[in-house]
Design brief:
Largest sheet: 8 strands, mixed
Radius of gyration: 17 Å
CATH architecture: Alpha-Beta Complex
Number of strands: 12
Helix content: 25-40%
CATH superfamily: Spore Coat Polysaccharide Biosynthesis Protein SpsA, Chain A
Structural class: alpha/beta
Number of domains: 1
Length: 222
């Protein structure tokens, strides 16, 4: 089945304390976005990639494609006001039945194995949401009080979140709601069940300066 990756990079660099979006920061002398795209193309050579970027950075995205992936099937589209709207913009480009991956542009350490496992799970069960267990104690705060939660029941959600297009595309025709924090929440609201798979501890999201150091050390070790 056709494979399409919607790689979403609409965020700013505020928590990184930079003037440019995080996906354009350099990691081992290459943009973070390079590693993310490269992982998908190494997993499956026939990936079609839809890159969702802030409108002001589309030219920078084109430069990365021309420099590193000139022969690949990659198109760029402008993002929206929220992640939901950015993903919605990317999905609007999909016309064929396919397996659709939605991935954070700054999760640049995603492995080929995770991508392959997510694809197989989606073909078999309709979706694949990678999660990892919480290693820390977890508390829920309500009305100025807190209570401990059983961390064995808590899962931390990653991307890529993967669905059959026949499930994901109609779900994203729903009106936006504040509790649409990821694609799985949209699909569940649409009335579809989701399937969890094991994620990866190394599949971190580059959010703070220390994450760049961790990613650099990981790349050096592989």
């Amino acid at each position: 089945m056709k494979k399409i990756a919607v790689i979403v990079g609409g965020g700013s660099g505020s928590r990184m304390k930079t003037d440019i979006p995080k996906q354009f920061l350099l990691l081992k002398e290459k943009p973070i976005l390079f590693y993310t795209i490269d992982s998908f193309l190494k997993a499956f050579a026939d990936f079609q990639i839809i890159l969702v970027l802030p409108a002001d950075y589309i030219e920078q995205g084109n430069q990365i494609i021309q420099t590193y992936f000139p022969a690949s099937d990659i198109q760029i589209i402008a993002g929206g006001a929220t992640r939901f709207h950015s993903v919605q913009n990317g999905l609007s480009c999909i016309k064929d039945e396919s397996v659709v991956f939605v991935h954070d542009a700054v999760r640049c350490l995603v492995s080929e194995d995770l991508i392959a496992r997510a694809y197989q799970s989606t073909v078999e069960k309709g979706s694949a949401i990678p999660v990892v267990s919480s290693k820390d104690s977890v508390r829920m705060i309500q009305n100025n009080n807190s209570k401990i939660l059983d961390r064995s029941t808590i899962k931390l959600v990653q991307t890529p979140q993967v669905f059959l297009s026949s499930i994901l595309l109609p779900a994203f025709k729903l009106p936006f709601q504040e509790d649409f924090t990821d694609e799985a929440s949209v699909v569940e609201h649409y009335g579809q069940n989701i399937h969890l798979i094991e994620g990866e501890e190394t599949n971190i999201k580059i959010t703070h300066p220390i994450d760049l150091i961790i990613a650099e050390k990981f790349i050096e070790s592989t």
